[in-house]
Amino acid sequence: MTEDRVYGRNPVLSLLRGGGGRRADEIAVLAGARGPLAEVVALARRAGVKVSYRTRDQLTAIAGSAEHQGVVARVAAAEYVDLGDLLAIPASRKEDPFFLALDQVQDPRNMGAILRTADAFGVHGLIVPRHHQVGVTGAAARTAMGAAEAVPVAREANLVNALESLKKSGIWIYGAVAEGGVDLTRVDLGGAVCLVLGGEGEGLRPLVARACDERITIPIRGQVGSLNVAAAGAILCYEVARQRALRGRMP
């Protein structure tokens, strides 16, 4: 398995606390640093993770970014769960299923923001295609601020087939489209749902759109005709959480 890098204080702390099942092989910390980094070092040593001390330039080279905040973790590449395991999560919690599916989202910052939104609003997991789709990379984990370790992700060879499997489990599939869908404010999202978000350029592919039970559109009043996929995902997830809270079904 290839290696990945997780950097930044919050993502590394979340990794060390074991939220997502991945384990750090080594933590590289800024030499002479104190304060918040002391907690990182303490957690790493308690977990038996090797700690090394590096210069700021060395950390930048390891992370591939200067935004490392003085700490970089070397970990195995992100581990993905099986779709069946993902479907078992809401049943084990006695909750209505709530999933997100992404159709060829390619910007790791969008992926990270969506993971953070998913964690915030009780999404049980993400479903992404194996090809032409960003995974849980170091850059995505950095943007997610720890949510990458808390939200399980299933990576499927065929997204349409995965959506059909969800339908067989009684989950209603809602595809988000920029225009032409049912107004979000008129949609009942209180039951078992999966929201499908399209990629940055073309949105939902035609086959994926046809696999959805219903297409929904966020009403926009301004001059801009559409929203960034991460912003749209946040609005949609909030609406699901809001409707569930009103019905007393919020996880």
What does the radius of gyration come to?
A: 19 Å
SSE string, helices as H and strands as E? EHEHEHEHEHEHEHEEEHEH
Please report the distance between the alpha carbons of the first and last residues: 34 Å
Strand % is 15-25%
Task: Count up the domains.
Answer: 2
What name does CATH use for the topology of the largest domain? Answer: Alpha/beta knot
Class inferred from helices and paired strands = alpha/beta
Which helices and strands, and how do they pair?
Blueprint: E1 3-7, H1 9-16, E2 24-30, H2 36-46, E3 50-54, H3 56-63, E4 71-76, H4 83-93, E5 98-103, H5 108-120, E6 125-129, H6 138-144, E7 153-156, H7 159-168, E8 172-176, E9 182-183, E10 193-198, H8 206-211, E11 214-217, H9 229-246
Parallel strand pairs: 2-3, 5-6, 5-10, 6-7, 8-10, 8-11, 9-11
Antiparallel strand pairs: 1-4, 2-4
